[in-house]
Amino acid sequence: MRDVFTDTTTELLTEDPRTALVLADISAAAFAPAAARHPERVLNVGIREQLMVGVAGGLALTGLRPIVHSYAPFLVERAYEQLKLDLDHQDATAVLVGVGASYDRAAAGRTHLSPADVSLIDTLHGWTVHVPGHPAEVPALLRDAVAGDGSAYLRLSVLQNDRPHGGDGSLTVVRDAGPGAPLLVAVGPVLDAALAAVADLPVTVAYTHRPRPFDTVGLRALAGTEVILVEPYLVGTSSRVVSAALVDRPHRLLALGVGREDLRRYGSPEDHNRWHELDSVGLRRSVDAFLTGALLAAGR
Predict the structure, then answer these.
(1) Do residues 129 and 236 both lie within one domain?
(2) What is the C-alpha separation between 140 and 154, in angstroms, rounded?
(3) For residues 178 and 183, what is the distance between their CA atoms, to the nearest angstrom?
(4) What positions does the domain Transketolase-like pyrimidine-binding occupy (predicted)?
(5) 114 within 8 A of 79, measured Cβ to Cβ
(6) N or C: which terminal CB in the chain sees fewer CB atoms within 10 Å?
């Protein structure tokens, strides 16, 4: 995904003179050719992430469309105050592109982990959040975000599904178990694990790469009584949105995602998926317990 982002951004810088790119050393080497061609619109501020966002806000106020890029914990967590003040409060907009996701660089330690990034973005007003599940989904999402006029966050990962699923982010049914079946909503790169987890269960599976704004219309059309939400970041991030969308009907919600406990471990992204029970085995265990509870509650 990161390579596709680099290629697409390089193309955009050539195609659209309104596009700018602001870096804080991360990926500077990859964008060196673009910086040589467009030195006035490719700016590397050094290891100063707060300044990076402030510069992007200034560029936006001059009429440019800045893309701001770094690892998720540096881009969102470290520079959160600048996102709040230099972008939102100034009514300036930008396209943030984060890499590292929740624990892609777990081998680098806790400084490079950011399972709470989407939750933090969710405290800001009116942002679009895309969590692509495959590299082939990235170019269209990035181009649409840059062509728009609102603020957006693209969350890129080394984890991916076997194949892309296009669309505008509306819930897409990838497995239909029929009317009234439990609904599992998978966000981004957790889709394949979720499909494997419920392969022999009567569960409808829907996919989205756009948790914000969440497709509440699609959710209401698909949801029965049981809803399972699987997100590759902090557990429960979208629970309030799902619950609000279904507030007028009886429902049970199981939210699965990255746990809040600090594991204090290194390992690989796949290790962390397993430790947070976001692999197919862990997801199946959680889904079985949830659906068994639903049957008991119904007296079956």
Answers:
(1) no
(2) 11
(3) 10
(4) 1-164
(5) no
(6) C
Q: In the chain, how many domains are there? A: 2
Burial of 40 (0-12, 13-18, 19+ CB in 10 A): exposed
Q: What does the pLDDT read at residue 297?
A: 52
252-258 sheet: strands from edge to edge = 172-175, 204-208, 183-187, 226-234, 252-258
User: Does residue 165 lie in a domain region?
Assistant: no
Find out whether the peptide bond into 213 is cis, omega within 30 degrees of 0: yes
Q: What is the pLDDT of residue 295?
A: 52
225 and 145 housed in the same domain: no
Pair (15, 129) in one structural domain? yes
Q: Tell me the residue range of the domain where 182 lies.
A: 172-297
Q: pTM higher than 0.85 for the full model? A: yes
DSSP β-bridge partners for residue 67: 21, 95
Full strand arrangement of the beta sheet holding 19-23: 42-44, 19-23, 65-71, 95-99, 152-155, 128-130
- What is the distance between the alpha carbons of residues 211 and 115, in angstroms, rounded to a whole number? 15
How high is the mean pLDDT in each 10-residue block of the chain (300 residues)?
98 97 98 98 97 98 98 98 97 98 96 97 97 98 97 98 95 96 98 98 98 98 97 98 97 97 95 98 98 63
Give the contacts of 248 (CB within 8 A, at least 6 positions apart): none
Report the CATH number at residue 141.
3.40.50.970
pLDDT value, residue 294: 59
Where are any strands of DSSP class E within the chain?
Answer: 19-23, 42-44, 65-71, 95-99, 128-130, 152-155, 172-175, 183-187, 204-208, 226-234, 252-258
The answer on 235 and 134 residing in a single domain is no
